[in-house]
Description:
With 448 residues, this protein is an alpha/beta fold. It has one domain: Alkaline Phosphatase, subunit A. It has helices spanning 33-42, 76-79, 99-103, 124-128, 140-148, 188-191, 199-219, 228-240, 242-247, 255-260, 283-294, 315-340, 407-418, 444-447, and strands at residues 52-57, 84-86, 93-95, 108-112, 114-115, 157-159, 267-268, 278-279, 298-302, 347-352, 356-357, 370-371, 376-381, 388-390, 405-406, 425-427, 433-435. The strands form 6 sheets. The chain has a 7-stranded mixed β-sheet, sandwiched between helices. The protein has a two-stranded antiparallel sheet with strand order 2-3. It is globular and about 55 Å long. Mean pLDDT is 81; it is low at 1-31 and 211-234.
Amino acid sequence: MLTxxxxxxxxxxxxxRRQFLRVGGLGAAGFTLADLLRGEAKADLPTRRPKSVxxxxxxxxxxxxxxxxxxxxxxxxxxxxxxxIKTNVSGIDICEHFPKQAAMMDRLSLxxxxxxxxxxxxxxxxxxxxxxxxxxxxxxxxVTSKLLGSASSLPAYVSLDQPSGGPFDFxxxxxxxxxxxxxxxxxxxxxxxxxxxxxxxxxxRKKLLASFDTIRRELDQSGSMDGLDKFQAKALxxxxxxxxxxxxxxxxxxxxxxxxxxxxxGKFAHQADVKILYxxxxxxxxxARRLVEAGVRVVTLSVGSWDHHSxxxxxxxxxxxxxxxxxxxxxxxxVNDLNDRGLGEDVLVVVLGEFGRSPKxxxxxxxxxxxxEAGSMLFAGGGLKxxxxxxxxxxxxxxxxxxxxxxxxxxxxxxxxxxxxxxxMLTDFNGRPQNILDDKNPIRELVA
Length: 448
């Protein structure tokens, strides 16, 4: 990435450069557009529509025993307040507050008894498949961006989550390279995608991009920037492309469809004993669908707050009564929308948290605590085998009794859908080759 130092000033297109200039104006996302498109051109892209994944993270840890792995015959201090309901697949029961999922279980698959290594809110496993103690590994979206590139003028990897920053941003590219960081459509990053207002501003943007041509040619001694004119032209096209702007523009969606996803259809609370209720925001689900439809390979989003501990007076269950139905509506609206658009086989939807919750409820509080021994996840589409439950926990949902499914197995499966070669090695910051995952085995029941 080329940076020109100097005093900050504002060009006529209204973009603040703040003592630096970066091609295309998307430097706030950690990469230039030309870098992104150069990586795209190097990728060996298939002729058919490449597959994508929408990765829905329930950060905080969804209670598996209250959602997708109920145990109605367990002792009262384990089984919780909810009853199971039958689904449209014989032998599969889920929470009574998930009626929409129950009605379409033939198009979903559940994992039960997924084990995580860490028992705290570090999402390293969620995004890279490996815990922090395995070293800083690139997020799976960054790996996908590096190895596969993009099949469109959009980035390969988009995160719809605004992290708190620092060590708690778990979607970092690390040694995959800064150009493969997720594009986050917030603030200046997306403001720079707004259309220019007149031809003079467009001309100035062309001049800005052209000004890098001679300088970058002089700096490049390796030949890696051959064809720079092509990349600069495509970078300009991306900045001014109506397709790119529209992919991020939810105003293009009819209100009826947005309401169908459940936007602001209900209130939820982090904990019911904290009397602060929030509108459920379903817009990230719709945004994710728009992005994969436009060609983005990996879209991640984090919805709700799932670190429910409170156990006094059944408050944890009062919280779930509020939030489960709206989560149910958003998930099913997304799956239906993708299928209606002919994308069901091309887009994999994954819904997961970093762990489950302790099956035994303690009173008064903390209720259900962190539980790394068993958790549940939901899969839909992507050409995988649907209408099944994979894995089984014991009678109290404490541990898996059938197999050991790890986050590495989950991401191996996702990489397989996307077309990432798991035998590829990436060089870390110390110059040592690293596996993408140490356990490369996908979940065989899903890929059969």
